[in-house]
Specification:
By secondary structure, the chain is α/β, with parallel strands linked by helices. The chain is built from eight helices and twelve strands. The model has no long low-confidence stretch (mean pLDDT 96).
Length: 281
């Protein structure tokens, strides 16, 4: 894991482990252009953000011009302030900024109270995006074309994927998880399945998921199957009044028994089961 070059000037900075201390394995990345660098997500802890910044400096001394936040979850955006001295323009979907503004300080304070986390988060503050958008758009920097793609609803309501059409590389954020059980707490299940179908049809050779190793568009169907199965099992269990433990066992299958972040499965059930019950009332 760590820094991987996936195309000329395009790098993935892959998560090391699925523990809280390691940001649950969240990935970051950057693109070096003749006019400056573009960073995709900034990590969860000061150490992770500084490690990303150090990796960038190993490859290029160009200024960091742009940071793209793929969504508002802490493991992807807490590291923004570690780049403050670089003075980049931070960009996100408008919903991402709204959520980070409303929830970010509370989340940071809460995580800092967890044993062993205060030192890892020391020096970080919530640094919100300065520029937002509601629909996808394209930009060119240093001769490299970037398409910022917004699924209407998927992992969150404010997701952004960063597509490099000439390099055929996609930074998918948490719209795609590879070999990790996904976090479903803010999911729009129907929208996410639509987004994954569209991702699977994109003209892409390599995909950097929000968590897990670099992959290809075929991984979208694997995740779609998992999410569909979760949705079906929870709907059926709620209608029958079955215990959550039974659902958890049914979600665990031979094809995902080696996936990381197993703890998120029960958390997903605890958070989402009341919503399913409310939908059936």
């Amino acid at each position: 894991m760590g820094l991987i070059g996936i195309s000329k000037g395009v790098f993935a900075f892959l998560g090391e482990d699925d523990t809280m201390e390691e940001g649950w394995g969240a990935n970051q990345g950057f693109v070096a252009t003749d006019a400056g660098d573009v960073v995709i997500d900034t990590g969860f802890t000061m150490g992770r953000a500084e490690g990303l910044r150090g990796a960038i400096r190993q490859e290029t001394s160009a200024p960091i011009k742009l940071v793209v936040n793929t969504h508002d979850h802490s493991d992807h955006v807490f590291g923004n302030s570690a780049f403050a001295d670089d003075d980049p323009l931070i960009v996100s979907h408008s919903w991402c900024r709204k959520r980070l503004h409303r929830l970010g300080p509370r989340r940071l304070a809460g995580y800092a109270k967890v044993q062993g986390m205060a030192s890892r988060l020391k020096g970080l503050t919530i640094l919100e995006p300065q520029a937002v958008f509601d629909r996808g758009f394209e930009l060119t920097l240093g001769g490299v074309r970037f398409a910022l793609i917004h699924p209407r609803g998927a992992h969150t309501l404010g997701d952004t994927m960063v597509y490099l059409p000439e390099q055929k590389v996609l930074f998918a954020g948490d719209v795609l998880w590879k070999d990790y059980h996904p976090n479903l707490e803010d999911a729009d299940i129907t929208g996410w399945l639509t987004a994954l179908k569209e991702l699977s049809r994109m003209d892409v050779r390599q995909v950097v998921p929000g968590h897990g190793p670099v992959t290809d568009p075929g991984s979208a169907q694997v995740l779609a199957n998992y999410i569909s199965r979760f949705d079906h099992l929870v709907t059926e269990a709620v209608s029958r009044g079955s215990p959550l433990g039974d659902v958890e066992k049914d979600i665990m299958q031979p094809d995902n028994e080696s996936w990381k972040l197993r703890m998120i499965v029960r958390r997903n059930l605890d958070i989402l089961s009341p919503r399913y019950r409310k939908m059936q009332d």
